[in-house]
Amino acid sequence: MNKTLGNIFKGDKVIWMVFFFLCMISIVEVYSASSSLSYKGGNYWSPILKHCGILAVGVFTMVVVLNIKCKYFKLATPVLLLLAFFSLLWVLIAGQATNDANRWVSFLGIQFQPSELAKGTLVLAVAQVLSAMQTDHGADRKAFKYILIVSAFIILPIAPENLSTAMLIGVTVILMMFIGRVPLDQIGKLLGIFALIGIFAVSMVMLIGKEEKKDTIGKKVMTEQVVKSNVGTDEEDKPNMLDKLTHRMGTWKSRILKFLNNDYVAPENYDLDRDAQVGHANIAIATSNIIGKGPGNSNERDFLSQAFSDFIYAIIIEEMGIVGAGVVAFLYIILLFRTGRIASRCENAFPAFLALGIALLLVVQALFNMLVAVGLAPVTGQPLPLISKGGTSTIINCIYVGVILSISRSAKKKDSMMLDMDDNLALMPAV
């Protein structure tokens, strides 16, 4: 029995434990936060059973991936890059809209989000470039150029519809370049250029973007926009390519203005219809009373539209208090540091950079989500990895953990070989 379990749960045991605890928290909190879905659907078990089913598929794919040797990940890089690039173009041209953003495509009846695949693919490609161009004094200066070219093919198609994900990938790539010893002057220049681009982009958003409003029944409308009938729409009324590329600017402008608005608003004057997500997230945190209300006792889950996804961390704080929130954050910290230890034991540079890149991707996304939930960052729409309810994202994140576990297996073998060598040397008679 133990041998059978050992054959399934291969790899670093600490990573497995972190994954297990994150999944348990996910099942409890998603079940609690999905009460509104259960009520509307009339089936109290359907949302959580679906979520558990997706987690089961994710665990299965993770076990498959952890049994793949790291060298095969490198061989798959060109194919995955092409697949990621063309799927991102597909979603730009014929993507399905969710919350006013075209981020989804359907293939053979299965709906998936190409950006989830693209994130890991870019980390894989950057790890390969960094490992191939390492010298005794750090990465070759040409590596910087190659990383930028590969990143542009992934990040630029994502940015128009999913700016937060594009920023997340950009931060991860920069951190990987720093760890990969890319010359600091090159990274510094890149950060300076990004700062200028950011200032220009924010300026354009504030100038072009139409601030969103909500009417009395909570429906989204745009200023200076005429509501058109679905019947008899003229060809000239159809959005052109420029409209498709800039239609998200209104959402971005609204989020920036809300985040920068520090004016005091009395509780009785706060407009919960206009700022429902931020308002109810703040109420959830404020009413947690440090120790929390207990699992399943959240009140704000019935008012937060994304309680089981983007704002699940606020529900965790409300139900589990500061201690529960700290435990969740600590699990991601353990994941990062344990992966760092695995990377330090790797014999080759590629698996080390790949493991660290994936861990950074997961932890940076988790940090984004937590900052949004507690009001320290604008609303971004990033789910909490391995905890939030999801389809594509949950399975892909499980695959990411499977890659780390696969790398930990080869690193563990290296440690065992070194220990055996030390034992043999100790047994040799002194000359």
What is the secondary structure topology, with strand pairs?
Elements: H1 2-8, H2 13-33, H3 35-41, H4 46-66, H5 70-94, E1 96-98, E2 101-107, E3 110-112, H6 114-132, E4 134-135, E5 138-139, H7 141-158, H8 163-179, H9 184-208, E6 212-214, E7 220-222, H10 241-246, H11 249-260, H12 276-286, H13 312-344, H14 349-373, H15 392-427
Antiparallel strand pairs: 1-2, 2-3, 4-5, 6-7
Helix pairs in contact: 2-4, 2-13, 4-15, 5-6, 5-7, 6-7, 6-8, 6-14, 7-8, 8-14, 9-11, 12-13, 13-14, 14-15
Give an overview of the whole structure.
The protein has 431 residues and is mainly alpha-helical. The chain is globular. About 8% of the residues have low confidence. The chain contains 15 helices and seven strands. Helix 2 runs antiparallel to helix 4. 38% of the residues are buried. 66% of the residues lie in helices and 5% in strands. Strand 4 and strand 5 form a beta hairpin.
Which whole number gives the mean pLDDT?
Answer: 79
Number of strands: 7
Task: Estimate the strand proportion.
Answer: 5-15%
What spatial order of strands do you see in the largest sheet? Answer: 1-2-3
Main sheet record: 3 strands, antiparallel
Give the helix proportion (percent range): 55-70%
State the end-to-end distance: 47 Å
If you compute it from the alpha carbons, what radius of gyration comes out, rounded to the nearest whole angstrom? 24 Å
Would you summarize the structure shown here?
With 431 residues, the protein is mostly helical. The protein has 15 helices and 7 strands. It has helices at residues 2-8, 13-33, 35-41, 46-66, 70-94, 114-132, 141-158, 163-179, 184-208, 241-246, 249-260, 276-286, 312-344, 349-373, 392-427; strands spanning 96-98, 101-107, 110-112, 134-135, 138-139, 212-214, 220-222.
